[in-house]
Design brief:
Structural class: mainly alpha
Radius of gyration: 17 Å
Order of helices and strands: HHHHHHHHHH
Strand content: under 5%
Number of helices: 10
Shape: globular
Mean pLDDT: 88
Low-confidence stretches: none
Largest sheet: none
Distance between the termini: 17 Å
């Protein structure tokens, strides 16, 4: 694999900004459609609508490292905006694993890309996982940021094992559907512009 060049990094930056904008729009819509559950299902809905961005990155910047950079930058933004510190880990780890699957494995092309996108999509679970697995530390971090008990109760109102399993399955379904939706949009609107 060739190394990333300056123009590749610029392109990844542009696609990362579009990816982040997509996440933000999905969050805004979910906030009105399913209030109280919007944060819990943002990874799945984002995966559904970000497939075309992923396809564009793979086609326009076919280099090991591009996926890792995109996912890591979003994870760093979560950290900078006050999310639980360990929320960054799944974002970076899943992005790197997606990169490895895409460029270092010998799976059939479609299987490889679908799998890498599924793994990449689970990176957005980073801010949510501490709700289930590090509750006390998460509560402590919220209190340290000046959040009151009412706010904390609201955050954990819908957190349960069933919702966790539903969120994980939803990401899988969203990523698979997102891949095919993204492939359709890419073929219809972008393929003729390939470099």
């Amino acid at each position: 694999m060739k190394k990333l060049k300056v123009q590749d990094l610029i392109a990844v930056g542009v696609y990362t900004a579009i990816y982040f904008l997509t996440i933000s729009i999905c969050l805004l819509v979910l906030r009105f459609v399913v209030p109280g559950f919007h944060n819990l299902f943002i990874p799945a809905v984002s995966a559904l609508f970000s497939g075309v961005i992923y396809r564009l990155v793979l086609q326009r910047v076919p280099r090991m490292g591009a996926i890792t950079i995109m996912g890591s930058v979003v994870a760093l933004f979560f950290l900078m905006t006050g999310h639980f510190p360990l929320a960054i880990v799944p974002g970076i780890l899943c992005s790197f694993l997606a990169d490895v699957i895409q460029y270092k494995t010998h799976l059939p092309k479609k299987v490889r890309t679908v799998t890498s996108y599924i793994v990449f999509s689970y990176g957005l679970m980073g801010p949510l996982l501490p709700l289930w697995f590090m509750k006390n530390a998460y509560v402590a971090s919220l209190k340290a940021r000046g959040k009151d008990q009412v706010y904390i109760q609201t955050v954990f109102e819908h957190v349960s094992t069933q919702i966790f399993l539903a969120s994980m399955v939803a990401v899988l379904v969203g990523a698979i559907l997102g891949y095919y939706l993204g492939s359709y949009l890419y073929t219809k609107h972008f393929q003729h512009n390939r470099r």
